[in-house]
Amino acid sequence: MIDKIFYFLLLIFPFLNNAQETDISYNFPKIKSIITMPVRIPLAEISNMANASVKDLVFEDNSYEDNNNDQFKVKVWKTRPIRLVGGTNQNLLIEVPLKIWAEKGVGKFGVYSYQETTFETVMYFNSQIVFNNNWGIVTKTQPNGFKWVTKPVLDYGAVKIPITGLVEKSLKEQQLKFCTTMDEMMAKQLNFQNYALLAWNQFTQPFHVNEEYNTWLKITPLNINLTPLKFYRDEIQTTIGIDAYSETFVGQKPESSVPQKTIANFNVIPVLADQFLLQTTANIPFTEATSIAQKMFLNKEFEVRDGKSKIKITSIKVYGIDGKVMIEAETEGYVKGTSFISGVPVYDEGKRKIVLSDTKFKLKTHNFLQKAATLLFQNKIVKMIEDEYGIPTATIEDESKKGVEKAFNTEYYKGLKLSGKVYKMKPTKILVNDLYLTALIDTEASMVMKIQGM
């Protein structure tokens, strides 16, 4: 189960990252995310494993002489599949319907007359289950009695001999042995340690997010949390929480992490939220930011000094410097020179754009008189930039939301059914470097995994 969760996460992360430019190598921020996922395991699935492990012929005694020469043979079969039901004390109630053939010898001094009979009974068991934090399942199964469907009777014509007492003794012995069989089966079938180790090592291998842009994604799981198992009538429930770092790389493939030889134990957490916050990155190159600015302002004229003078923007570019966004615009007309408008990029949720705040203005010109008369120009161009310029994020948000919801509602493996919903997705913090604006995106979502039909 755990390994399939990891592989599922490997599949969805490409939807959650966006990067461009291939002529450089740049390491984007390492983002820590916590992913929680309620897991539903129908008891029918465990019943299927139990029935697959327990053969139809449960027990066979082919000797008359064993058990102190009891002159008794017996064969025991399942008549229907083993059935499991959730108890009220973190336990499973197990029902095993059986058909029994028995043959009994009656006589003395080594001379016996044999008669056979067939009857049915239902055995009951109570199994306490503990999921150890080393990924192993430990069960302690105990007998919980049985009931007769048809009682055993040896028919010698005029004489009918009930052998209920003799058979009950044998059944009780076999019930104890069957407890051991059930515990061994559960420990073997429900041990996830090897799967978790394979998935953990696979999870840390860098892989291509996008071959066209030569973009790599590396996931580093930190630890895994699980809530205690909860038993209901028809299913077992738990919630998995995965703490992980995600890193985006453009250009050269990053080095792989050193493979682990043992899987770390998971942490048992009393409660994990059904909803989770996943943090990822969307990377916007300054070439795109410049293109947006050019479409909005290049060759645009605006008036200053009560409409008596005009200014035209003849060149504009956008780049990052010292953690801020710089807009460099060359103008002619009333003011001829180069204006530098810097600001802190922030996300405007109403506009769904990355805009500038805390803007600063500086004019570079050789005309001293223009320097002294630029207050109106400064106010005009700064207000225009603040009001009009912005990098739209609507497409990033909408496409990411569609990709995530598609990934959250897909059956990647037979029997591994996922159902999820994205409630909110928005950039929260904008980071600046020389070549990119990196938006940290918060995704509020929920997802449920159901194991069925595997």
How does this model look, in words?
This protein is of the alpha+beta class and 454 residues long. The protein has helices at residues 2-12, 43-53, 66-69, 164-189, 193-203, 286-297, 368-372, 375-388, 394-408, and strands at residues 26-27, 31-42, 57-61, 72-78, 83-86, 91-108, 111-131, 137-150, 153-156, 159-162, 207-210, 215-226, 230-231, 235-250, 267-268, 275-285, 301-304, 309-321, 324-333, 337-348, 353-364, 391-392, 416-432, 436-451. The strands form four sheets. Strands 1, 2, 11, 12, 13, 14, 15, 16, 23 and 24 form a ten-stranded mixed beta sheet that branches. Strands 3, 4, 5, 6, 7 and 8 form a six-stranded antiparallel beta sheet that branches. Helix 1 packs parallel to helix 5 (193-203). It is rod-shaped. The termini are close together. 26% of the residues are buried. Residues 1-25 have low confidence and may be disordered.
- Overall pLDDT, averaged? 79
- Outline: rod-shaped
- How many independent structural domains? 3
Helix and strand composition category: alpha+beta
Return Rg in Å. Answer: 36 Å
Hey, roughly how much beta strand do the residues contain? over 45%
* Biggest sheet layout: 10 strands, mixed
Distance between the termini: 10 Å
What are the low-pLDDT stretches, counting only 5+ consecutive residues below 50? 1-25
The level of helicity is: 10-25%
Question: How many strand segments?
Answer: 24
Number of helices: 9
